[in-house]
Every structure is written in structure tokens, then in C-alpha cells.
Amino acid sequence: MTTTRERLRAETLDEIKTAARARLAVDGANLSLRAVARDVGLVSSAVYRYFPSRDALLTALIIDSYNDMGAAVEAAEAVVSREDLHGRFVALASAIRAWALSAPNEYALIFGSPVPGYAAPQDTLAPAMRVTTVLAGLLHDGLASGTLTDPGDLVDKALRVDLAELTSQPPFQGVPLGLMARGMAAWSAIYGLVSFELFHAYGPLTAPGALFDHQVLGIARQMGLVPPDGRTTRSRKRAT
To answer: Across all residues in the chain, what is the average pLDDT?
Structure first.
């Protein structure tokens, strides 16, 4: 049973993190605990009882952001038939974009420029892997069904060593090296599309959602994922 003291502490933690997320829109990741404390109505020494440093607060925000995005992607991908690998890929890609558009400051925190002097601790690894694990599940299911195979197109020895290390452990354990390379390329392409849109790198483009849909279909084909019966699958509930 939660005590009153525990409840009040949890509420204060939430207030501090809410204020810090609002600060991200103004200051980016260059957070000031003093400024956050002022926004919450606390003296700075009080905030230090909850977060002993700026890095501790950043870590909490990063973990929350990864978990929020992971939950959104897991939910979107889970409602698609397990046999529809193409639809699952489109759903997870679209969910990444939708979450990023709904939380641009949090997306920038975890996928923008590195924060000078900050090194992410081990605590961030498991939350960061949630979205990646969804892709890994899709690759494993594709292999099991025979939809995906090893393209066998890797020739660079150094790359093979790197990929062998990645596929020697969960969640990609057992994925053929060539397919792993294509999966990584697909992953980076999705985040590249989202980042270009959020960071206004497209210039006067007026239909970024349409471009995203078009590119995701192409990325899926490159991986070996095609829509059932040759139909065109468009992103579900696309954010505009």
C-alpha cells in the first residue's frame, strides 16, 4: 500500500519532470535544475533531493521518452495480424512518426544532437530497446514463415564481424547477417525520414506524410516485405 509520503514524492517527481519537459521546448537538452525548480515553485536545493544532478534528470526524461515511444509502437504493431508482416512493418514505422510528431521535444532529446558532457547510463538501454525489439520480432517471424531470407550479399569482413556480434545476442540472435544489415538500413531510414521532417530539413515540402508513406513502402520492399495480394498498404491513421 502506498503511503502518503510515497504518494507526495511521486507527485513531486512528476511535477519536476513535467516542468523539465516544458523546458525542453525552450532550452533543449541544456536543462538548468535551478530553472526547473523555479518553474515548479521549489528552491533548487529541494529539487536536488529528487534529482542530484542535471544528468539524473535528463536520464529520467530519456527513459520516459523511450518508454512512451515503445508503448506507442508496441500497441500499433500488436493490432495487425501476425501473418501480415508488411502491415506490421508499416504500422510500426507509422507509429514512430506519429509519436514523434506528438512529442517533438522528447524525440529531439533521444534522437537529436548528443548532449555535451552527458553519457547515457545502463538504465536507458532496456527502454531504448523496446522499439528495436518490435522490429526483431518481425524479422524472426519473417524467417520462420519463409517470407524473409538471408540475401547473402555481404562481402566486407569487418561488417560481417560487427553484424555477427549483434546477432549473437537478443533480440536479434539467430538473424542472418545479410538480413540484419537490411533491417538496420530500414531502421535508420525510418528515423532519417522522421528526423528530416521534425528538424525541418525538407525545405518547402508540403506533404511530408505522403513522402513518408511512399518511402516506407519502398523500404519494406527492399527488406523483402510486400503487401498481401499485391495491394498497396498505406500508413494507418497517418499524422499530418
So the answer is: 91
